Amino acid sequence: MNPAAASALRQTSEAPGPVRLLEAWNATGRPAGLTEHLERHGPPPGVGASLIEAVEQAGLTGRGGAGFPTGRKLRAVAGRRRRAVVVANGMESEPASRKDQTLLAVAPHLVLDGAVLAAQAVGAGKVHLCVPRTRTGQLRELASAIGERRAAEMDSVHVVLHALPHGYVTSESTALVHWLNGGTARPLGPHPRTYEKGVQGRPTLVQNVETLAHLALVARHGPVWFREAGTAETPGTTLVTVAGAVENPGVLEVEAGIMIEEILRCAGGPAEPLQAVLLGGFAGTWLPADRAVGLPFSRSGLAPAGAAPGAGVVIALPQDACGLAATARMLAYLAANGAEQCGPCRFGLPAVAADFTALAEGHADAELLTRLRRRVDLLPGRGACGHPDGAARLASSALTAFAGDVEHHRHHGHCQRPPVLPVPCETQMKEWR
Ligand SMILES: Cc1cc2nc3c(=O)[nH]c(=O)nc-3n(C[C@H](O)[C@H](O)[C@H](O)COP(=O)(O)O)c2cc1C
Ligand code: SF4
After folding, report:
1. Can you give the pTM of this predicted structure?
2. Residue nearest atom 12 of ligand 1, based on CA coordinates
3. Which ligand does the CA of 343 lie closest to?
4. Domains of the chain (ranges plus CATH)?
């Protein structure tokens, strides 16, 4: 198992409530090979199209970020006339997230079951499993898991593993489709819709790997069982990556809708007094810690605060860190990782990142704040994908959550507190094919 996944998993056994995706891991402490997987879960049932209704009744939503109802996607693809294709999105490009790498490391067959069952449900002949080519250990492990299934003649659908360029936007669904069609891993824009015309012009279902693992359990145990966890509005369990100033950062499986305070407690509790929490990852929303802890971790629970769970990321910022400096570094990373196709990524995002850096470093000119707010407001809804929207969310929530720091930096310069949160290097994306 890759070291990132191993270290991420220390805390799962402390999560309250049902543990489903990580059950085998919690019981044995080792990744489940095919024999162990089948002993624990039994063979995947022959559900076919009836799975779509079960997934609809279960209320399963996508775990890749947008939280779209999975049943609706399955039905849209199944309703097309041409033979479909399934794409399993295992790219996990969000720098703070480890949940998909962890899941693929400890329960690869649950994901593969889900991908094959989804293919059977929508009448697809092929599954493409996409992961970044930089994760060589993961690629080896997945090739071996697929090989085990092939040797056991288990799947009626051909599963192909792909190693894609690694970048923040190369994991967006249309970027995967573009790459699988022989192009670069750059987002294509919303038209044509992937469910109508995707890989090889076929109706294409793109699902996050965690979503597929839940689907494999819905197929086995049914929608009523799935709804025994979570809330009526947001059923089931969900994987969460907890990072920053907690005693035991890592990946947890929790009931959807659990309070954020409880998530922090499951990660060992705050390691220091907390100032703020970033929900959803680099494209997420900063909230003051005292406000965040009392909110349920679900789309409906976080919506009134203008936040969302995104890909299940909770980052705790300690009091003695500079939230503006941390945000400036994240924005620089996001700016360096756009696909440079649309205006907001070519001009808007780098300008916002530069302004934020000047603010964080205490070099704000008199016009900076007005200019920055105007530029942030211009980002959303103007790119061919949601990348600039996520960056705008991060920037504008930081200006609100750290309003006191903004004033301090404008009038007195840098506060000298460190940014604390780790951010990957800001090198410009070079490899798109
Ligand atoms: C910039 C950007 C990056 C994304 N990165 C990922 C990713 O790493 N993994 C993922 O599953 N979805 C990612 N998504 C969402 C996918 O486009 C797509 O909605 C998702 O894979 C669908 O699966 P789901 O419905 O199961 O969540 C990203 C979206 C955007 C706009
Ligand atoms: S908004 Fe940015 S990342 Fe998205 S398609 Fe346009 S250039 Fe690419």
Report:
1. 0.96
2. 64
3. 2
4. 21-226 (3.40.50.11540), 237-318 (3.10.20.600), 323-412 (1.20.1440.230)
